[in-house]
Amino acid sequence: MLGETPPLEPDWALLAAEQVGAAYVESLASETRARHGRHYTPPELAAELWSMTKTALGMEQPVMQLPGLVRDPACGAGALLLPVLREHLAASAEIDPRLVLHRLPSLIEGIDSDPAAVWVANVVLAAEMLPMLARTPEANRRQLPALARVGDGLAPGRTPARAVLMNPPYGRVRLSEADRARFANSLYGHANLYGMFMAVGAESLDSNGVLSALVPTSFTAGRYFEPLRTHRTSRLRLESATFVADRSGVFTSVLQELCLATLTRRSSSGASSSPNSPRSTSRELRAASSSRTTSTSSGPSATRSC
Hints:
The chain is α/β, with parallel strands linked by helices and 306 residues long. It has a single domain, classed as Rossmann fold. The chain has helices at 17-27, 30-36, 43-57, 81-91, 97-103, 115-134, 177-182, 193-203, 218-221, 226-232, 268-273, 278-291, and strands at residues 70-72, 108-112, 148-150, 161-166, 172-173, 191-192, 205-216, 236-246, 258-265, 293-297. It is globular.
């Protein structure tokens, strides 16, 4: 399919979709995971992040079709896209399955630089489409769409998305002069991949867009991310944040405290009534993170990570 296929273990056939992605990440050498900042998202956190995103989008019904494009620019094995696809397919049960499958690439997009992870993502996402394909008359069946592709999640100029979900890669990087200038408003000291992904995610939203991400809690108040908060909160507001109460085993080798943050585009009226100074927008983000938060425990089953 896309890129080289990863080595498949014989017992992978017995795994659920989320477990396949976790098994792939766990099969990587620890040096590879550390170098590329790869950490599989536990299904409990993926479901919580999508639930928060739905609330921010105004999707009030338990099961609804997607209102626009949902993108994960660092999709890995597709963990964050699985609950999105499942809900959309469930909500489309009464629609011609040919139309549903045909529209999926315009509604769900995953991007990752790892060809093997993209291959796994496309396999697990395609498996979710099989019941819809089975409802299609055999003469009208087509190849299932590949919703994930190999690419650079930081590349500019993408189609605006209604929602961007991400568990961005971690790690400091050395930037070219061009990239240093591009991210100048979002950097303080060393460049970190997840700060850059947050910046690009915010830029790629449409006018009603929502950005949801798993980030270190330092993103909400730490000095390191103050430029990013200052720059982004002039256009976005922190809608909600959920802190991981028990992070033991969630992401091995990741020491930071984690939170799930959802940010929404400011309306024109909201922007005009909000403080305009960089300091005030940073304080607002910190205040929101302390007054509008809930806690979630990862639970023992949320330990499937690299």
